[in-house]
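Thread: sanity check for a docking pose with zinc ion

Original post by kr_44:
Hi all, I'm comparing my docking run against an independent structure prediction. Below are the sequence and the ligand SMILES. Could someone generate the full complex and paste the structure tokens? I mainly care about where the ligand ends up relative to the chain.
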Amino acid sequence: MPNARLHQIIGILLVVIFLALNYIVPVFSFSVIDIILLIPIILFYSILPDIDIASSRSRRMVTAASLVIILACFWLDKKWLGISISVALLLLELVKHRTFIHSITTALVFSLPFWFYNPKFFVVALVSYLSHLALDREVKLF
Ligand SMILES: [Zn+2]
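Reply from moderator J.T.:
Ran it for you. Here is the predicted complex with zinc ion included:
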């Protein structure tokens, strides 16, 4: 089973290939700032599917960020949002490894928020996520 570092290296390589192809046939224009912002997205999205492993790096990152957000929700009197995030974190405990989290549908759903910010970030997040699935040989629709 590939580890997190290998997933991140392959994710970066695929996005470099994507950027090189984009340079040859320009679909998107990437600025230097775009590329700097893309690095943490690539590093995170290439390991995100392993959020279904309790001890994974991505689970620890999401849990830590969620706890901060939950505290902020209660601080800002957004209790229902805090409770919803808490429930989502608890439900994550029930998800088995390499089930629906390791699917193309989840890749699209998890990458979708970037579409509303910047479509080229969506594509890079999606490519990073899909590179993880390909390396795990778990490319399935659902
Ligand atoms: Zn995986």
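The first helix runs from residue 4 to 24. Hope that helps with the comparison, let us know if your pose agrees.
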